[in-house]
Write a structure and sequence with these properties.
Layout: H1 9-24, H2 29-46, H3 48-57, H4 61-72, H5 89-99, H6 102-127
């Protein structure tokens, strides 16, 4: 595997999304594929916060937690992995997004959409039978 620092942002997104599908997609592949395919559109149409709240309410945390870990990993200014996390990564991300500026929320939304497109691609390629 290549050193992550040598990869550009798009390659990092792709690698992270692929790892998320490999890690979580096999548990319920049909449901995972359905949710992964709808994620980019849900973010674009509804916004990041409502989408995260929806996934959290439906208890479909594996996709939203993978996205949260990506965003909290220093990809968006103002979002950081909590030192002492309480609850799920999704809950931590929601808490931070509520404190972020409009510009910060927009940057997070754009990054989330870009990552979710890779998740959709890999889920389709790896889980669609």
């Amino acid at each position: 595997m290549m050193n992550a620092t040598l990869l550009n942002r798009e390659q990092q997104r792709a690698l992270n999304a692929q790892q998320a599908v490999r890690q979580d997609g096999s548990h319920a592949p049909t449901d995972y594929l359905t949710h992964a395919q709808s994620l980019p559109t849900m973010i674009r149409v509804n916004g990041l916060l409502p989408t995260l709240a929806f996934y959290q309410a439906k208890k479909w945390d594996n996709i939203s937690d993978a996205l949260a870990r990506w965003l909290l990993g220093g990809r968006v200014p103002g979002l950081v992995t909590p030192a002492n996390p309480q609850g799920t990564p999704t809950a931590a991300l929601i808490d931070q997004l509520l404190q972020l500026s409009s510009r910060g929320n927009r940057l997070a939304e754009l990054e989330a959409e870009a990552w979710s497109i890779w998740l959709k691609r890999f889920a389709k390629g790896m889980l669609d039978t």
